[in-house]
Specification:
8 helices, 299 residues, alpha+beta, two-stranded antiparallel sheet, 5-stranded mixed beta sheet
Amino acid sequence: METFLQGLFWCVPVALLGGFIGYWVARRAARASTRVALPDDMHQRDALLRAMTLLVRSTDKLTSDVDVHIHELEDACRQLGELHVTGEFAPIQAALLSQIARILESNRHLEDDLICTRYKLHQQAAELDRTRQEARTDSLTGVGNRKAFDEHLTFLLAQFHNERMPFVLVLVDVDNFKEINDSYGHRAGDQVVRELGEILRHSVRDSDLVARYGGDEFAILFANIDEPTAHSVTDRIRQQLESHAILWDDDVERLSTTCSIGLSGVRDDDTHDTLLQRADQALYRAKHAGRNRVTVYSD
């Protein structure tokens, strides 16, 4: 027992010092986390989001470790308190119990600070992720924008070259869009674009991407799919828009429209430009064949 008490006498101050250092670091982290400025540059935002994600994970682990340490100290305190010591060891026991109590109090404060820090980091990461999503979202339709499209196409091309994972690029364009704007006004044109975006968004899988590519033109990136399947899916989209009554002007006016669709699957040695050129050529052929149809690119 003498050896146990002497060892504990030296270990507890060391643990107390460690607890104080951890407490100071956590307090600094808690204050620093509230001062993170959200950057405007997308690359800085993405880098900061990745760093904060790692920090959140580290804080989660540290919080768990502190909780385990508190339980271990409480157990040690209980065991030490149950020892029946007399004579010269009684004051040592009392001093150790007092030191452990102070360590436990510091660790509980540390745990509270870590919980607050973790919450603030989660909030900051969520805000960064929200601004990241906003930077890649078209404000009119709620689908991806050109930035989101370019990034996802780069990813799919790399995945195809590395893993031979096929994908299909689809371009969708509203038929006679200029006439809609001229006849009904730009508010009606915006409503057509908005509702087509809604139809597209609800017609694809989570692994696919819909993006507004131009004024009345959309792009779809279908992952892990072949051209015949993509043709079937997009023809259903075409039929849905054709039969869809678009309401505008306080839901009083109704108008209908159609769309033309061109698509092409990825090929060996494809780049952004070569794949886009084929899909655009297919769309051009759909327009000049009478509109309101789906055309698969063919050489």
